[in-house]
Amino acid sequence: MSFTLSSSLSLPLSLSNQNPFTITTTPTSAMKFLVKQTRNARVGSLEIILGNNPNNNIININTPNLIISTCKGLPHFISPDLLSSIPSSILQVSPLHFTAEGVSTNTVTKLGGLHQMLGFNKYCIVAVPRDSIQCIPQFKGATKFGPSFDTPSGRLLVKPKDYVEMISCMKPNIWAALADEVPAWVSHKRNKTSVDRTLKWLDDCLTLNPETGSIFGAIVGGSSLEERKRCAEEVAKRNVSGYWIGGFGLGESMDERPALLSAITDVLADEKPRMICGLGLPEEILQGIAAGIDLFDSTYIYTLTLGGFALTFPLDKNGNQHNFQPSQIESDSTKINLRATAYRNDTSPILEDCSCYTCKNHTKAYINHLLNVHEMLAQILLEIHNTHHYLMFFQVIRDAIQDGRFEKFRQTFLESRRVPFEGETISA
User: Fold this and answer.
1) 47, 205, 252, 277: which has the highest count of C-beta atoms within 10 A?
2) In which residues is Zn(2+) bound (predicted)?
3) Pick from 64, 413, 65, 268: which is nearest to 405 by CA?
């Protein structure tokens, strides 16, 4: 089954025999989404057309995929000259990184938006209020006027009007509406309030339409199946280009998450892309993809890198993890700790068959040395490898979906990791 979607917030739906789901594009920015569904897990292609001329740069992102998390537009440790070594062209930013820390909206506007300001004309920029590292949602501080975030500059209340002003000046290709995210342990009444507020803020954002990029409606509801479904149904009625699923990674268990995800995705339009924050571990990624999620954030990569960890789990096409060989100590079925003395004299790359810049040019011993002398180059090399490895993980998953063997891949992956490393911790 194939669908085509182009972003538009004001033009009516037009149907044709060739493309049963087609919305005409806006003149300034266009997004097309083609999806081939295999049960719930699905592969697709997100096409971003930049500029007024359809012959301008076209960015193609295969889904499911990873959105590279950034701090002020750049990955946390990778410099612009090394960014091209990462096989990805989609970056996630938080508008609060800019406006909450000294850069005014007028300044960003004069510079021509984020693409011009950052010099990233060949990248798709996704703006999401939540940053799980620096701009953490604070449900106790939210009011009917807007959500509250803890930022490096203090707690900040963001109203829809202020947020749309940020979006207007930054001109991202995709942006998520404001959401009142709540943790899993709040009351049913608080879950209902979060959904009511999120829907109102979405309506406010649509009314204040900044006429830039494609808006993704936010879906919340905490651990309540009823409220998750209600929010998804209401957002699906709105004229949005896609869906941003929030409120995950905030205390819900792995066991209750599949039902929550299914309550959401079962009522969403198949022809629109779905993005989520808060799922990072390989097991969590597989949970999300099984439910039909298309795009994931990558704050998990930052956590690993900051701790001195390198991803090393096998990228076996069948999902088999039995081939993992722990090197002495400080290892598990996912990663190795390159701070360990076991790697002080190890002259091999992180992974022999890895094609990333780090593995092609440097050894475990060198990275171990850089970590022990607190040299930032260690984090640069680790983030390059970890990002590259995770992107290859998504490639293996896409291949499995296309071949009709995703469910078997997922079960093999989970079972083969569970047996030989029973009792070990897999989180970063």
Assistant:
1) 277
2) 354, 356, 359, 385
3) 413
